[in-house]
Amino acid sequence: MPRIILLTDFTEHYANGLLKGIVQYSKGRDSWVLCKMPLSYRDLYGVEGVLEWALKWKADGIIAQFYNSDNVAIFKQHGIAAIAQDFKQRFTEIPNITGAHFLAGQMGANYFLNKGFRNFGFYGFKGIVWSEERCEGFKNKIAKSGAGNTFSEYQNIEFKDLWFYESAPLMKWLYSLPKPVAIMTCDDNQGRHIIEVCNQIGIKIPGEAAILGIDNDEIVCSLSDPSMSSIQQDVEKGGYDTAILMEKMILNPDGDFDNVVVKPTHIITRSSTDIFACDDHYISKAIKHIHENSYQKLNVDNIVKLVPLSRRLLETRFKQITGFSVYSYILNLRIEKFAEKLLESDEPIVEIAMKMDFLDYKNLSRQFKSVMECTPSEFRANRQ
Fold first, then answer.
1. Does 162 score more than 50 pLDDT?
2. Beta partners for 229?
3. Which of 106, 275, 318, 339 could form a disulfide with 141 if both were Cys (CB 3.0 to 4.6 A apart)?
4. Is the CA virtual torsion 51, 53, 55, 57 positive or negative?
5. What is the average per-residue pLDDT within 232-244?
6. C-alpha of 145 from chain center
7. In this predicted structure, what is the pLDDT of residue 92?
């Protein structure tokens, strides 16, 4: 019966995702006993105080947000397996729950590049591994694409707490960015800060600044005004893999173990990025109409009526700008929205399809597979 201490901030969406995965693994095995220890205990008594309590409680393992100055080796010395949750820097003495941060940055860059953006910004912290690596992946992908006119990063502030930010420096930075600009932030909390400051100084979202966070904390994302798009990570699987690792470490205290790597899976598009950056007034009007009506059936004739262009000229200019025909752009966007609904709702797939005016389910399944490389049912099962 393993006895495990969880020392983390359970007000965070990420930590609760890890806990769900750990609990999922522990079910059906010899009952695990989990102790949720608040971070305030570490701050009050230090890592030595945490160890003292762990020994009294007869803990077998601890999964924790440690400070890099903490002597984490003392746990193994006392027969307690220890795993560190990403906080500032990775540890070398013990395994880490970390992330494919560079990959997440690249995913964000691809997302914005496909939306036609040419000006980019990144907001995060210096000296924090998950922020710096996400920035590096974002910047690297943009540079390799050759499509970025400008890139600016705001990582010149020290990490204090996730809630802390100063609006005046952010205002100055945001004013200086050429518009429209695509801004990726190191996590959802910092994305919310950017949205708040943009609202204060009158920068329109997503028209002038499109904002993308990471972690898909639904409370933070939905309470932002406008609602914030975010990169979903497979955190629950990370928690499950962490529990497997913890069990191995308890059974084999002297073994060598790799880090647990939480991977980004997909992007949830909300209002903060629901736009395509375009300087052509007529094509911009057409794209805006497509986005505003993406949950209902659209066709090319609907779009032709919006602008004083012949169908042929509209198609030519539309493809030059977006890389897609009008029909393909509509279909891809509607499939993307349909895919999001599959993950957000437990409703039967056919019912979701009907609500979005996909009346021919067999044809929808074929179209979905052409875009997503799997059927709707496979997509939902793979992501869950």
1. no
2. 212
3. 106
4. negative
5. 95
6. 22
7. 94
The alpha-helical segments, DSSP class H, found in 58-100 are 73-77
Question: Which has more confidence, 138 or 374?
Answer: 138
Neighbours of 180 (CB within 10 A): 21
Residue 140 neighbours by CB distance under 10 Å: 14
Superfamily per CATH, domain 281-383: Homeodomain-like (1.10.10.60)
Percent of the chain residues past pLDDT 90, beyond the cut? 63
Block residue for tokens 């003392």: 74
Share of the chain above pLDDT 70, in %: 96
Domain 3-99+235-265 grouped into CATH 3.30.420.10: no
The first and second tokens of residue 372, run together, are 């997503």
All structural domains of the chain with their residue ranges = 3-99+235-265, 101-232+267-273, 281-383
Let me know if the fold of 101-232+267-273 is the same as that of 281-383: no
| 223 contacts 193 by C-beta, under 8 angstroms | no
Which spans in the chain are helix H?
13-26, 39-57, 73-77, 101-114, 129-145, 167-176, 188-201, 218-223, 235-251, 281-292, 300-304, 311-322, 326-344, 349-355, 361-372, 376-383
Task: At 9, give phi and psi (nearest 5°).
Answer: -95, 100
Give the per-residue SS3 of 316-371: HHHHHHHCCCHHHHHHHHHHHHHHHHHHHCCCCHHHHHHHCCCCCHHHHHHHHHHH
> How are strands ordered across the β-sheet holding 229-233?
150-154, 119-123, 181-185, 209-214, 229-233, 264-268
Read off the amino acid at residue 27. K
Q: What is the mean pLDDT of the chain?
A: 90
pLDDT at 163: 47
> What pLDDT, on the 0 to 100 scale, is given for residue 165?
62
